Amino acid sequence: MSRRPVNPSRRLGDGGSIPFVGSLQSKSRTSPLLSIGLVVVGAILLIGYCYSGSGSGSSDIKAVNKLDGGVSCTLEIQRALPVLKKAYGDSMHKVLHVGPDTCSVVSTLLKEDTEVWGIEPYELDDAGADCKSLVRKGIVRVADIKFPLPYRPKSFSLVIVSDAVDYLSPRYLNKTLPELARVSNNGVVVVAGYPGQQRAKGAEVSKFGRPAKLRSSSWWIRFFVQTGLEENEIAAKKFEQASTKSSYKPACQVFHLKSHH
């Protein structure tokens, strides 16, 4: 969920004005049959124009719908899984995903015979039966990521976090990201939104307690350095090469960090 931020100024059917046949009344005398004929021709032209523009119009409608729904970096994780597997190889065998709707990511990886767990940072008020089943089995936990995670150091080969970091202030990020690096063995993948993306609706604001704070890549890089988190250059390079080869363009920012050793 390749997608680029949709330009809010983009308008539906921005391909020109609808053609009209002109005024049906003329200064010169016209017969009733001629007037009726002009009306019929105008109607045919108008209908034909609408149908001829249906192709481009439908794509614009999809773009607007995508904007209304916002960009989900958790859904983007599922699109990026094949690329992540090529970049991390064997490090994808024991994965922890952290973020809203983690049940969807966990379910996808379980189908691919990957050992995976999930942390849902927010209450699962409207969770489906499959998600509740994952919680009962202990595969998915509901936990506040502003506090220490209930795992030992290096419990997972790879930790992936999406959407959740956009709702944390620097005060809590200073604690959460080093925790993610602590419980990982071969790296942390941080997936965050681009500045200007529509990410939170009114319901989400009430759920998360605050709107998403979408930061630039330079902000994140400075933050990583200040927090003592190092870039996983090897994984980042492999991810970039795999993305180019598969023509994958992330709709969210993807950062590759080293684990704490």
Description:
By secondary structure, the protein is α/β, with parallel strands linked by helices. Helix content is 44%, strand content 11%. The protein is built from nine helices and six strands; from the N terminus they run H-H-H-E-H-E-H-E-E-H-E-H-H-H-E. The chain has helices at 32-52, 54-69, 73-88, 102-111, 129-136, 170-182, 202-208, 217-227, 233-245, and strands at residues 94-98, 115-120, 140-142, 158-162, 188-192, 253-257. A six-stranded mixed beta sheet has the order 3-2-1-4-5-6. Helix 5 (129-136) links the parallel strand 2 (115-120) and strand 3. Helix 3 crosses helix 9 (233-245). The radius of gyration is 25 Å and the shape is globular. Keywords: Membrane, Methyltransferase, Transferase, Transmembrane, Transmembrane helix. This is S-adenosyl-L-methionine-dependent methyltransferase. One of its GO terms (molecular function) is methyltransferase activity.
